[in-house]
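To the structural biology subgroup,

Please find below the input and predicted structure for Glycine--tRNA ligase, which we are adding to the shared reference set this quarter. The sequence is reproduced verbatim from the submission form. If anyone notices a discrepancy with their own records, reply to this email rather than editing the shared folder directly, so we keep one authoritative version.
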Amino acid sequence: MAAQTMEQLVSLCKRRGFIFPGSAVYGGLQGTYDYGPLGVELKNNLKLAWWRANVWEREDMEGIDAAILMNKLTWRYSGHEETFVDPMVDCKNCKMRWRADQISGKCPNCASTELTEPRPFNLMFKTQIGPVPDPESFSYLRPETAQGIFVNFKHVLDSTSRKLPFGIAQIGKAFRNEITPRNFIFRVREFEQMEIEFFVRPGEDEGWHKKWVEDRINWWLSVGLSRQNLEPYHQKPEELAHYAKATVDLLYRFPHGLEELEGIANRTDYDLGSHSKDQGALGLKARVSPNSHSTDKLTWFDPETKQHVVPFVIEPSAGVDRGVLALLSEAYAEEQVKPAPVDRLKPVEEALGTFLKSVGRNEKLPAQAKEALLAEGERIAHALGERLPSIAGLLSMPGAESIEVAKKLRGQVDPVVDEFYRTVLHFKPHLAPIKVAVLPLKKNHPEIVSTAKSIRRKLQSSGAMRIVYDDTGAIGKLYRRQDEIGTPFCITVDFDTLGEGKDAALANTVTVRHRDSMAQERVAISELETYLREKMQSGA
Ligand code: ATP
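Predicted structure (tokenized):
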């Protein structure tokens, strides 16, 4: 299980409406993606699962939703104006710009080694505030949601009468002018974060940091990521951000490699101290820049010791988009429903061979596209029996459309895939964009259709889950379509449901088909709601 290549996910996401490249009709805008009808459901479900676990189910957390635009002084005192920079280099040959730490002295585009010296590049998007183009009337689109929490620390404390330890959680958009956005929605310029700032007494920070690392790993497991794909990485002292006492990155095995999904940092009293007035009297442990603008002391008054305390902060900070990518990758599987006979595979094998030869000979294809097509094509050819459905992904890669024999290959592949394979997203039910699809066995039988539609309406009105009616194909095809988008249950209304089948006892029952096992069982319409609720809760 799990996706082998990013192409498999990109292709499925575009084809079925999870994620589209941003502004595509105008040639796109690099580093932006739009979530489609299924993507928005998946993303909302992920955010809801996070909010439920971290805000509703805990007794020590409050939520907020702060503005994206903040007074620019926030970014001066947070340190972002000065330090939110990546060293970058320009290629003197092709003029592309790269992050110095991500290339090894060679331009990934044209392979030239003629690069400029690394220079700092601020990742914040600057934006004009108000109608007058005054050089001082600007701010930035927030590059993280965290600062909205710190500047609201006192508001939340005063309005909720919280005591330490407690946390504030927030989900929202963040913007970074990434130099080299890439790997689909992994590194983008506009993304969402799910962040917690957890405030603790100094001295209790290390214990809480450890607890949060465990907690966050367990949560990612609860949404379906597997332990072997998740790795905690303890940053070395020389890797730590200037404000951090310790940071553990949770790395996930994405199709492009093992990379950061979430960071959990012990930020000491740096943030609250930085945004406070009267810093000298606070006994701060962190080194902060003098603040001459803040109007408040961001402290908690300890009624027992009668002292003002600047709490230490533990920050679990996760990317929503990276979370969505991890869920998709983990859930993705191409499965053989039954083995395809050799005589059906042979023509596909030949057509794939012809396609790859034609790619190899094509002189107009850019070198990078050619290399990627050949590599992916050969990977598939190597284990054709298991990988045959990946040919759809191969054919949607850049350059594939310009190869004439591509159409012939698709013509060979599609019927074999339809008959012997399925692509499945094995999402946990609570994350699946659609929970139940109600399908009529015959779409031109008025009674079957009206019964199916009324089941859909009734189920939809009773639960906070998305339920659809689908009659756009024969039943086998409809099951495959729902498997491919991760719908855990399909309900089929047939002649037995109407009492017109051979077994009169089946009247008023429907077939429930399970996505993962493909098993089918008969359930009374009157029991459906309870049945589905129980299955959904048990994660089956
Ligand atoms: P990286 O080293 O990958 O650039 P980071 O360490 O700068 O990430 P943080 O500042 O710790 O990231 O942000 C917290 C989380 O926000 C990250 O773990 C990631 O999930 C998400 N995130 C950060 N930058 C991006 C981006 N450009 N696109 C998508 N998600 C991002």
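Summary notes: The mean pLDDT is 94. Residues 6-71+123-329 form a domain with the BirA Bifunctional Protein; domain 2 fold (CATH 3.30.930.10).

Regards,
Lab coordination
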